[in-house]
Design a protein that fits this description.
Layout: H1 2-10, E1 15-16, E2 22-23, E3 35-37, E4 46-48, H2 53-61, E5 67-74, E6 86-95, H3 99-114, E7 120-124, H4 125-133, H5 142-151, H6 161-173, E8 182-189, E9 198-199, E10 202-213, E11 216-223, H7 228-245, H8 254-263, E12 267-273, H9 274-282
Parallel strand pairs: 1-5, 7-8
Antiparallel strand pairs: 2-4, 3-4, 5-6, 6-12, 8-10, 9-10, 10-11, 11-12
Helix pairs in contact: 2-8, 5-6, 7-8
Length: 298
Amino acid sequence: MLEQTRRFFASRNVLEVDTPIVVGSPVTDVHIHSAEVRFPDVQRPYFLHTSPEYAMKRLLAAGSSDIFQICHVVRGLERGKLHNAEFTLIEWYRIGFSLDQLMKEVASLTRELLGRSVESEQLTYRDAFLRKLRLDPFAASLSELRKTARVAGFDHPAAERDELLDFLMASCVGPKLGRGSLSFVHRYPASQAALAQLDADDPRCALRFELYYEGVELANGFKELACSIEQRVRFEQDAHERRRRGLPEFPGDENLLAALEHGLPDCAGVAVGFDRVAMLATQAQHIDEVLPFPIERA
């Protein structure tokens, strides 16, 4: 499957790159937890990367062409049927691509790796919630969201809007998507944009998508944010939310901000969870079945 992936990108003239697994700055996203690395001859901590995204964007800003990478990444607090602390990502960036073009390319690669001619659909985040929960995620009140989450088993009276939406997507909406088809959910709330641009036609929405197949999330893609000022603001918002949740706080990656200030080309990028695709291709029931060394035996 890895050979298939490399052939897929070679046929499209997308260059394979290799970026460091040990990085100077962790991500600030409240949902992603970086593993710290200590060297005996260095005072400061380093971190194992959770994605090659920051480094790959630095390459794009330096003038690279379309690029892809297949690499191991590490994330803490992730273990279960679909999670191992160390896993493999396929990540790539396409200069000049729209979100729609990238979704079509993700579908093509996914079909090749699955070995199946699977239909695909696109639906908005709002439509996904309306279809599965009869709830409008943009219009529902905080009390409505808390009530719906409580019925589903998440009883946290102090939970804020995005925390509730994340729970509902992960537990009630996502697992019902992609049954027999590739389901691309796009136009996430602007507050969940992460490193994506906002939709100029509807600034309530981010130009972001996720791919689901048989209830499993396989990919997360963006029309990439290129504004260093806006990215700095988002890093600061992440810090505030980490503080609220009692999580460790980290400054935003200054190298990434410098690259954005230098100039990121108009592009779209995506990360695909290779191990999850391998699970679905082989009909495995647990991620350990497709990993030679799960974390407990690493």
